[in-house]
Amino acid sequence: MSAAASARDALRRLRELLSALNIWGLGYVLLGIGLATVAAWPLYAAPRALIVGIVGGLLGMLVAVVARVLRWNLLMSALVAAGVYVVAAAPLAVPSSLTSIPAFFLGVRDAVLGVALGWKQILTLNPPLGEYQAVLVPLMVVMLFGSFAATLLVLEGGRRAAWAVAVVSTMSVFGIAFGLIGTSSAITLWGIALPAPREWLLGISVFLAGLVWLIGRARLRRAQALRIVAAQNVTRSAAPVWLGIRRHLLSGVLLIVALVAGVAVVPAAAQWSDRTVLRDDVEPMVVVQRQISPLSTYRSWFTTSMLDEPVVSISGDTGDLERIRIATLDAYDGEDFHISPDDRFSRLPRTAAPDAGRLSLEFTVGEAYRGIWVPAPAGLAQAPTFEGARAEKLADGFHVDDEGDTAITIAETSDEREGLEPGDRYGVLVDAPDETPTLTDVRGGDSLLDSEAYPALAEWATMQEQPRTGAGYLEVIDRLRARGYLSHALLEDEQATGWISALKSAGGYSFAPTYAGHSAARIEELFTSLVDQERRAGADADPKMLVAAVGDDEQFAVAAALLAELWGLESRVVLGARLPAAEEVPGIPACDTACTGANMTAWVEVRSSGGDWTAVDVTPQSAMLPSTITEGEQLPEHPTVPEQLRSEALDPPQAQSDSRNTDAPPEEGGSDTLASLLAVARVVGLSLLALLLLVLPLLVVVVAKNIRQRTRRLAGDPESRLVGAWEELVDVYADDERPTPWFGTRVQAAVAVDREAATRLAELVDQGVFAAHPPTEADAEAAWTIVDEERAAIAERRTRWQNVRSHLRLRSFLARVAPRRARASSDHRLAVGTLAVAGAGAGRQEEDA
């Protein structure tokens, strides 16, 4: 064909492409691109996401239109679409690729890898994602390839075109499935509370768009068919007017019912279950759960080797920031406070910019600290900017919890552990703190604590006779701190000299021994001493006589958290350090430019009536020693307190000790190896299961075809096997896209197929079925030999991929659903075959007679 003829042919196909039916379909795909882009907006909340969504969708449509005009096959079209993606994805979806030529090639690499890895990245980041790294790549993939597939389908013209609705709907589902955990705020519509209005509106819009397109497409196809009939001068009877009216009314009623049902069902469905999105299941909790509770090792900060060593150094104006947080512990199991297994850690994008309401600080990790917890203030506006040789690893491993109160990094260290190590540096951008909410106006509720498990705690709380309000709770905590006594050690030895000397120089201090730990037994021991002391001294005794509980922030933070639960208040324990803007607490000084072990503290946070957390300091006093009162002893009118407590510390029995070694426990190599192997096995198993689920439908098709063939070949009598051979050959032709007419005789069908094997088999089957004598085993074997030879001949002329497609094709199954409809529309053709069958049957009956 000459170049001019090829150009004319392409121009003709382009004119055919611009038919009303195709333009209607392309308009539907364009609307789907817009809806999918709107659905993805909350996930990104960046103008560039709109560009990626719209431009990516238009590129996919363009490739599909060109493929249709030039009549490319599916493989060629898909390769061109992939090439367009590789070229366009870097400048569109990876903004950093535009900074330099090397950055462009890195962007292309990220775009290619993002097809497989980008989905996990967006699931481990807290939305909105903005333009962080390559997070826009999955959106580009969905929009470009989704619009490409949808456009090919709408231009198909056959029954498969309706599958475009599923593709367009899936494009919109991306933004919802990968988006925010919470839904949009409820609104009231016509007196009905409608939760998640944005999600509801998107769903209804996608539904209506698909419905309107299908209805319009059906009408356009019908009009097209009528024009063809009119062009052939074929007259048709006009349909009654009432049929058209009824059809329109029925469509309108169905549409109204769908809308009303949506309005009615959405509120109920929102209450049936919590919203679940894909990001709910992606967490670095494996590393978090391997960690020892940081509260359990609290006393290690006060040993001689750690007391004056810097934990973290801070540069920059801390302003009104009051605290540096290391870990927020929100679960207690009676043994230790830890991160709840239900918490979720995700990445934090780096999209914020400094402004008047934000503080910029630089942190340097000191020699006294290493671990996964990242010291930082609350309210991080973006992910930290790490510096140094490990910057990229630390950034990739950085995660924060849902409320942004605990930050971790799971980057591997030089000693094959995880987290920060001395010398690591990072900068943070922090939102300026709001006004601290108070607890005085908070009202308590039903107890959240099992009082039977903590009888001494419950009894002491009852003895205080305070109301179940925020003010009452704060009064109880003040009494708890005033009746406690600060001590960080069991023995007054070399390891304790540093903090003891510091307390003495601050105003006089006498050592008192105390166990470590914060188990339920240890907390009950603390409250038992308070209850016994108050009983002996009396409720009206001098406050000095009520001091009895010895411990430090580890025990008193847990005690205060449990008291909050007894008051019906939600609480948690935080480990960190106070900054100069915080209220001064005797015993644990605040830190300014360098936080050492001596500055480490723990406090309780209680949820206020507005939903915010309020910090409550719990460090006990260190000025008044505990007093030992004997039962029935008459207290002196003016009691004195000895200047120095002269007591010898005795080692307690092992069974009564709840102390914990301040050093980290030895590594359990076998357990870690087993855990790693189990984690790998779990990933491999889930991957194989997912692959099996994907392949399972294909396996079902292959097995069903084999069972069908075996059933026909092994039928009970030769006549059934003979007929089964013909049916098998018809199915072979159907899967080879060579459909056999369902009307007429077998010979007529064989002639229509135009295959010599079909003609031979049709004659053999008709001879065996309609002959005076039943067919023999040899006839059945000969018939199946023809089928096997024809199957082999067809397979030989096809490529390997075409053979695979033929084995997996469903046309031989679906074709058997259509015969009844085909017969109903072709009665005049069936009459010929029916008469032939009837005549043969009558002839056999006469011979038998």
Please list the strands of the largest sheet in the order they lie side by side.
Answer: 9-12-8-3-16
Number of strands: 18
Characterize the largest beta sheet: strand count, sense, and whether it forms a barrel: 5 strands, antiparallel
Helix content: 40-55%
**How big is the Rg?**
39 Å
> What is the average of the pLDDT values?
80
Instruction: Report the end-to-end length measured between terminal Cα atoms.
Output: 66 Å
- Uncertain segments: 234-239, 261-282, 641-669, 820-849
Percent of sequence in beta strands: 5-15%
Name the shape in a single word.
Answer: elongated
The structural domain count equals 4
Structural class based on helices, strands and sheet pairing: alpha+beta
Enumerate how many helices there are, as a single number.
Answer: 26
Q: What is this structure's SSE topology?
A:
Layout: H1 3-17, H2 20-44, H3 47-70, H4 74-93, H5 101-123, H6 137-154, H7 164-177, E1 187-189, E2 192-194, H8 197-231, H9 241-272, H10 285-290, H11 304-307, E3 310-315, E4 323-329, E5 331-332, E6 337-338, E7 345-346, E8 358-365, E9 385-387, H12 391-396, E10 398-401, E11 407-409, E12 425-431, H13 455-463, H14 470-482, E13 484-486, H15 497-505, H16 520-537, E14 549-551, H17 553-566, E15 571-578, E16 594-596, E17 600-607, E18 613-617, H18 669-713, H19 718-735, H20 746-753, H21 756-770, H22 777-797, H23 800-808, H24 811-814, H25 819-825, H26 827-848
Parallel strand pairs: 13-14
Antiparallel strand pairs: 1-2, 3-8, 3-16, 4-15, 5-6, 7-10, 8-12, 9-12, 10-11, 15-17, 17-18
Helix pairs in contact: 1-3, 2-3, 2-6, 2-7, 2-8, 3-4, 3-6, 4-5, 4-6, 6-7, 7-8, 13-16, 14-17, 19-21, 19-22, 20-21, 21-22
